[in-house]
Structure formats: structure tokens, C-alpha cells
Amino acid sequence: MGREKELIGRQLGDGRFEILALLGQGAFAEVYRGRQINLNRDVAIKILHERDAQDDHLVKRFHHEASAIAQFDHPHIVKIFDHGEDDGLNYYVMNLLPKTLRSLLASRQILSIEFIIRMAHQLAGALDYAQRTVKNFLHRDIKPENVMLDRDHNAILSDFGLVRGEQFSQMTMRGAMMGTPVYMAPELWQPETTALDGRVDLYALGILLYECAAGAPPFRGEFMQVRQHHLDTLPAPPRKYRTDLPPEVEKIILRLIKKRPEERYSSAAELLQALSPLVKTLPDRIFIHSVFETVTIVSPHPDAEQKTPPATVILSERKPVRKQRPVILRRPALWLAAILFVGVIAALWQFRQPAINTASLQNDIATEKKLPSPVSSLPPKENAVKMPNENVAAKPQQAPLRIFAIPACEILVDGKSFGFPSNGRLALETSPGRHELAFRHPIYGFVQRSVEVKERIGLNYTFKWLGKINVIASSEDGKPIPAAIFLDGKPTPEKTPGNLDVPIGEHEIRVNKFEYEMIGPAKTVKIAGGDQISVSFVLRRLN
Fold first, then answer.
1. In terms of Cα–Cα distance, which of 198, 221, 40 is closest to 124?
2. ∠ Cα 164 24 188 (to 5°)
3. Is the pLDDT confidence value at 213 over 60?
4. FRET partner for 180 with CA separation of 20 to 30 A, picked from 225, 350, 451, 496?
5. Per CATH, the architecture of 399-464 is what?
6. What string of DSSP letters covers 405-457?
7. CA pair distance 462, 446, nearest whole angstrom
8. 3-class DSSP state for residue 152?
């Protein structure tokens, strides 16, 4: 636990800020939950990595970034309260935000169209403000991890570590190509031949919106494959994977991710103008997820021109839905009236019935016993008996089959495609017995499964493209160690102990921590879908 253990409880800024707990870490810094003691409020404290604090260039950029971003005053841009250096720790203090957009996407639930439109409008407003405030502003790292969500699920743009602009021009980090490959515009892959402007951020925003709508970004794979896709490959229209996506929204997304910058929106202001008609049609009640979600947001329409902060949004509590009892059960007087009414009707009915002649009834029963059975009275030879319903075919027994694919994908039953349900759910009536299911996803591939549907019972079948791997790292004496987790050779946002959602198939897992080495090789695990596997590593401190 090393550095984290040393920092918890430490105070910074002449005792104004106290470090409480580690929230996460990135390439250059760690973020801690903290407390501003003099104002009695929770904050986030970003601290430059110990190894990077030895680089004067990085230290200078770190503080220059903080002082420049502190000039921004926009409801959808992170707020920086203070920055400084305290006994070798370089830090700055921000408003504390509970989660990221990535956490919503990691839940594998389908985001609602209304939520996506509102988020796009909020982020476009943040970029428009930044482009008007800082000449030649470039964020250069817009991705779900850098879009924070406040308690009311408003989008807040954060992590300006790769920002470039007039105030940042002398502080650009060494190296020409910077950003996260999945979200990088084509011109960022060839910075020496293409002039960069704010349209690189619009491209990244388009990729982010595509991922929110379709469930996955358009381009994934190895580093060079992603590069080639961004340069040459036309993405599939997102409505191919999300049938309820309005054509107007798809049109905006596809324009944002055009290969040539001049074919995109010229600025965030122009994007805001395109989004305004959609924002004005948003309902008062906005679901965060499309279906099967009890949390709703109650809000008036946001201000299309961002002249004032959007109205406060209220997140409803998750409460079980209680069935309303019938009116008659809630009013005892109605019970009494109903009983009296039934009693009167019964008495009148009995009064009108004729008296039963018991002697006649007994004679009828005796006569009936003497009558021969129609079939048994036939002579003993081969006879043809025609039954009344002989030509009526029996209706085949049907049973319900309900399928839920996580994330949503194309579903096939016995070779017949039922399309790409936007919520991943398919319900149909089928015959009892064995059936062949198949699932096709643009990212994860094609998988087949065989299921048994029982008569009168049916089957509820959940198919998960992803499994969960719990990764643990400890020292030789068994103490837990927070270490970075690598999946198939690539770093992940998680660190130990942490959970990774991974697609079905074989995966290589390893961990890494500065000044430590793994004892033993990386581990290979096989995920069949929906599996939960735990792997552990032992780390040895280097001398």
C-alpha cells in the first residue's frame, strides 16, 4: 500500500485540506477523496506521481494546467479550487464528482436516447465555452473516463492534462501524438501533415456518443488496427445496432466522426445549434437507461444557449412499486353493501326456481340405468365409429422463450434472425424441446448455444458476452498491494483489488507496480460468458 498508506490522513495547503481515500490513478497522477477543513466540504485532490515529480517540465505543466483551468467558470467543466506544492507533493484541488460516464457504460445497460441528447448538449456547451475562452483550445482526451457525472447525472468535462491552446502553447508535453487511440481523430495520427484545431475534440465527442448509443465504439483492436480504422474505415451507422436511435441523432454522430475535418461541424457552437431542436423536445421525465430501470430524472428542459446553468436535476429514489389495492378493499362500507346486494339477488333467485319433483327425478335415474351404452351395444364385429371432433387438429403446445443478451446484439433462434433488439430482450412462443440459439455482435463475434424449453414452463435464458475477472495482488507476506492491471497486454483503468468485465474467450492478465516485480508469469484465463473468475498475484519489492 506504500504511498497510499503514507498519504491517507495527511494535510496539505497549511492544513486546509486532508487526504481521506484513494479514488483512482492515471498515467501522471493519483486522485484522492479529500476534505476542505476550513469550508467543511468534500473535494477531490489530484497529486502528481512521485516519479513524475522529478521531471521539472511535468511539474511546471501540472501547475500551469491547474491555474489555467481555474479560470474556467462553466457548469459542465470541472472546477479547480486551489493548487500548490507541499513537502514534495504537487497537487491541485477540484470539486468532488461521484462517478464517470464509463461507470454507466460498464453497467452494460442501454442508455436512453434522451439522456444521450442531454449529455451531448452539455458537453458541446462546455467545449463551446472553452473554445471561446481560450484561443485555439484543444482538450485532446475526450473519453468516457474524462466525463464525470454529478449526483444528478449532469455531464462534467474533466482531466485537462493534454490541453493545448494559446495559454498552453509553450507547455505541450514532449511527443507529437497524444490522446487515447479509440477516440483520436485521423489528423492526430498525422500531426506533422495536418493542422490541428477544435474539430479533433468534436471527433472524439462523436466517437463517445457512438459508443453510448451503440454500446461500443466503432473501432477497436490492436494499436495499429485502430489507427488504420480511423484513417480509412467508414464506421457502420449506429442505427444498425440501435434501432430506436432517431435519424436526426445518427446524422449528428456520423457528421462528427467524418474523416476530413472540413466535413465535420466547424465548431462546438455549430454543434450546439444542431442539437438545440432535439433538446427542446426532451420530456420532463428523462430515464437514464432505456428500459428496466426505476431511477428517473425530473428536470425542466435545459437552456439551449447555456446562458445560465441548467436547472437542478432531482434523482428519484429506488423504491419498490406497490400494487394499488382495489377500491372495494380500501372502503369497508362498500364491502357491506356488496354482501347485502349478493344476498338479495340469491334470495330472489331461489324464490323464482320451481319445486323439484323428487319422485320424477328417481324414475328418470332408474330409466337411464336401463339404457345400453351406444358403443357397447354394437354387435361383435369390426365397426367404424365417427367421433364429432375427428377432423379437428389438436393445437400444438406452445411455451414461452425469453432471451436477454448483455450487451444487446443480434439474436437468432433455430437459424431465424430476430434482429438487434435495442434492449437486448426477445420474447416469443415456441414449441417445447431443444432449440438452437445464436448471438452475433459487431465487436465480440458470433456464439451459438443449445437450450431446452420445457412444456408449460418455458425458459428464461440470459446470455452474457462478458465475464468478470477479480484480480488481487499481495506482497510475499500476504498484505494487499494496489497495482495496475493489464488485460491482454494493455493497461486498464482498474487496479487491484479490482474487477474487469471481459468478453468471452481467452485473456492474459498481469499486474504492474512501480518498484515491484511479479513472482511468476502472467496468467491466462478462459471466459465462457457470465463467468466470475478470481486470479491472484504475488509481488516482490525490488531492492
1. 198
2. 30
3. yes
4. 496
5. Sandwich (2.60)
6. EES--EEEETTEE----TTSEEEEEE-SEEEEEEEEETTTEEEEEEEEEBTTT
7. 16
8. coil
Q: Is the pLDDT of residue 478 over 60?
A: yes
- Beta-carbon contacts of residue 46 (< 8 Å; ≥ 6 apart): 29, 30, 31, 32, 91, 92, 93, 94
Kindly tell me the burial class for residue 40, based on how many C-beta atoms sit within 10 Å of its own C-beta (0-12, 13-18, 19 or more): exposed
Given a cut of 90, is residue 121 above it in pLDDT? yes
Task: Please say whether the structural domain 2-95 has been given the CATH code 1.10.10.10.
Answer: no
d(CA 288, CA 301): 15
What gap in Å lies between CA 150 and CA 313, rounded to an integer? 10
Q: How far apart are CA 48 and CA 57, in angstroms?
A: 12
Please name the amino acid found at residue 388: P
Strands (E) across 300-386 are located at 314-315
Give residue-wise pLDDT tens across range 289-306. Answer: 774 333 333 333 333 333
pLDDT at 268: 94
Q: Kindly report the number of other CB atoms within 10 A of residue 374's CB atom.
A: 8
For 316, the enclosing helix (H) or strand (E) is none
User: The whole model's pTM is what?
Assistant: 0.56
Question: How far apart (Å, rounded) are the C-alpha atoms in residues 1 and 497?
Answer: 11
| 189-193, 235-239, 490-494: least confident range | 189-193
CA 186 to chain centre: 27
Residue 324: which residues within 8 A CB-CB, separation 6 or more? none
Separation CA 491–CA 512 (nearest Å): 9
The single-letter code of the amino acid at 539 is L
Other beta carbons less than 10 A from residue 236's beta carbon: 12
Q: How many helices (H) and strands (E) does the chain have?
A: 12, 27
Fold adopted by 99-169+179-315? Transferase(Phosphotransferase); domain 1 (1.10.510)
In terms of Cα–Cα distance, which of 100, 114, 86 is closest to 11? 86
Report the run of H or E that residue 231 belongs to, with start and end: helix 223-232
What span, in angstroms and rounded, lies between the C-alpha atoms of 81 and 93? 5
If you search the block for the grid coordinates 479509440, which residue do you land on?
182
DSSP label at 478?
S
Region of poorest pLDDT, from 35-39, 121-125, 320-324, 459-463? 320-324
Cα separations in angstroms, 498 against 33, 410, 469, 471, 483: 18, 30, 8, 5, 9
pLDDT tens-place string over residues 334-349: 667 777 777 777 666 5
**Looking at residue 377, what is its pLDDT?**
47
Fold match between 2-95 and 399-464? no
Average pLDDT along the chain: 79
The set of cell numbers assigned to 433 is: 424441446
Q: Which of 407, 418, 426, 412 is nearest to 465 (CA)?
A: 407
Reported confidence tier of residue 204, pLDDT bands at 50, 70, 90: very high
Peptide bond into 186 cis (omega under 30): no
List the domain boundaries for the chain: 2-95, 99-169+179-315, 399-464, 466-541
